[in-house]
Amino acid sequence: MSYETFFKNELKLIDGNLRQALSIRKAAPSIIHSAMRYAVFPGGKRFRSILTFNACKACGGKFADAIPAALAMELIHSYSLVHDDLPALDNDDLRRGKPSCHKKFGEANAILAGDGLLTLAFELLADIRPAERAIRILREISTAAGVRGMIGGQVADLMASSRKTLSELDFICKNKTGKLIYASAMSGALSAGALAQPLQWIARYGECLGLAFQVVDDILDGDGYSRFLSRERTVRKAQKLIVTAKKAVRGFGAKADKLVFLADFLESRIPQSKAEPR
Ligand code: GRG
Questions:
Q1: φ and ψ at 95, to 5 degrees?
Q2: pTM of the entire structure?
């Protein structure tokens, strides 16, 4: 079954709730709301929010319990892409097949739209109840998105020389990409009120899946790990992480089927032979 069919309900739920969260149509100045919506729609794979929903489900919660965390993860991911595309960073003119946010709305508005998406994420998380749960989730997500996570990884990437070591590359990928995926899983589990043992399983799963995501992305782009390791070793690294991720959630039994599907989906993205870079 395709990814889109398998996750039809999650995709509908995340898009409907994102639309609602971003639908301040009459609010002034309208340009910032338009730029924020432009950055979020149409979406990409919605991988992080799908992960949040299903980590929550594996831990005995309902999708509805995970809506604020799932929204937050998708908003923070969208902000990171808007800022990453800016001339000062990757300077990309295109994102998801259309002009990047700064190309459409100008650099200043794109910076502010990114800021708007990031702060909206935390506004939504603040409504989680009980309040102790909100605080726990806020801590997890803010740490992952900040200097001990995505921002730290991005800065390490900017500072690294073209001759970085494998351990520097690991640090960059675990933080820049991995931490947000880790937090997507953890915030889903926390939204279900998960206790120590299931949290430990989800933590291990999220950690391995997060790094595997970047390794697979590097295989597709012919970048990062692919420049360091042979194709065979890069593929093996991704596969090993995916196997470990799946093992970590075995204790959930059938409740983790969708988490296993997500891990298998990553593996299915690895081209059979050396791909032309995207
Ligand atoms: C604060 C100025 C400033 C910049 C921050 C946060 C940041 C810049 C960069 C984040 C790093 C980043 C974009 C890492 C790449 C992660 C990655 C592989 C993104 C692609 O994710 P997918 O494949 O995309 O899930 P879709 O389009 O499917 O949502």
A1: -145, 125
A2: 0.96
